[in-house]
From TrEMBL:
Note on how the cofactor is bound: Binds 1 FMN per subunit.
Organism annotation: Azospirillum cavernae
Cofactor(s) this protein requires: Mg(2+); FMN
Catalysed reactions, as listed in the record: (R)-4'-phosphopantothenate + L-cysteine + CTP = N-[(R)-4-phosphopantothenoyl]-L-cysteine + CMP + diphosphate + H(+); N-[(R)-4-phosphopantothenoyl]-L-cysteine + H(+) = (R)-4'-phosphopantetheine + CO2
Residue span of region Phosphopantothenate--cysteine ligase: 11-223
Signal peptide coordinates: none
Name recorded for this polypeptide: Coenzyme A biosynthesis bifunctional protein CoaBC
GO CC field: phosphopantothenoylcysteine decarboxylase complex
Entry EC number(s): 4.1.1.36, 6.3.2.5
Stated role: Catalyzes two steps in the biosynthesis of coenzyme A. In the first step cysteine is conjugated to 4'-phosphopantothenate to form 4-phosphopantothenoylcysteine, in the latter compound is decarboxylated to form 4'-phosphopantotheine.
Segments forming domain DNA/pantothenate metabolism flavoprotein C-terminal: 6-216
Pathway: Cofactor biosynthesis; coenzyme A biosynthesis; CoA from (R)-pantothenate: step 2/5; Cofactor biosynthesis; coenzyme A biosynthesis; CoA from (R)-pantothenate: step 3/5
Length: 223
């Protein structure tokens, strides 16, 4: 018999980087591979959830059993997430660009002899915070990620409060670890009742274990 503890539940997962245009041919991006977010989406679908995966550009195949919405910018990601509501579960694993270029050019910026252009940046919407504070439309369980380079649990605990989400999955991305782009992940899961350190494992295994924890939460709610 299939193990489908999340059947009847709707889940939204964000994954990958965002691309923020500078002009029609250039953009600002980051090194997110999308591996962790895609693995979570796939694992939730395997447990029976109806999953919408909102993803920035990655080299990954669409995970089986998920409805995939491809976006490029943070603002497109937010719009796609809002369109996916209502959901029971939201997992924000995307590496959303904090800033976008203000006043992007419709034409390719030229080397006109006047020296390099200066880019002025403006803040992007915070999708995790928006979903966490969405009032009656707030998903029952909102999970964010935190990439930190030291004092991982302390910073992630503060981030959990600041964003208003329920759980934070925190990883150490200090120099020498290969979390960004790599196959493995070492995480701490922070909830209202404290932090739990998980051993280093593949991102697929982190996705599977997180999906199991989510399923357990809906069976016996934890803080
Ligand atoms: O604030 P910081 O970027 O460190 O927070 C990381 C968490 O917030 C991740 O879950 C990420 O997906 C989410 N985030 C977001 N929208 C942003 C910035 C971060 O959803 N603009």
């Amino acid at each position: 018999q299939a193990h489908t503890p999340l059947s009847g539940k709707r889940a939204l997962v964000t994954s990958g980087p965002t691309h923020e245009p500078i002009d029609p041919v250039r953009y600002i991006a980051n090194r997110s591979s999308g591996k962790q977010g895609h693995a979570i989406a796939e694992a939730l679908a395997r447990l029976g959830a109806a999953v919408t995966l909102v993803s920035g550009p990655t080299r990954l195949p669409d995970p089986p059993g998920c409805a995939v919405v491809a976006i490029e910018t943070a603002r497109e990601m937010l719009a796609a997430c809002e369109a996916a509501l209502p959901v029971d579960i939201a997992v924000c694993a995307a590496a959303v660009a904090d800033w976008r270029v203000a006043g992007t050019s419709d034409r390719k910026l030229k080397k006109d002899g006047g020296g390099p252009p200066s880019l002025s940046l403006t803040e992007n919407p915070d999708i995790l915070a928006t979903l966490s504070q969405a009032g009656p439309r707030r998903p029952a369980l909102v999970i964010g990620f935190a990439a930190e380079t030291g004092d991982v649990v302390a910073y992630a605990t503060a981030k959990r409060a600041r964003k208003g989400c329920d759980w934070i999955v925190a990883n150490d991305v200090s120099l020498g670890t290969t979390t960004f782009g790599g196959a493995d992940n070492t995480v701490h899961v922070i909830r209202a009742d404290g932090a739990e350190a998980w051993p280093t494992m593949g991102k697929d295994a982190v996705g599977a274990r997180l999906a199991e924890a989510i399923a357990a939460h809906f069976q016996t709610p934890t803080p």
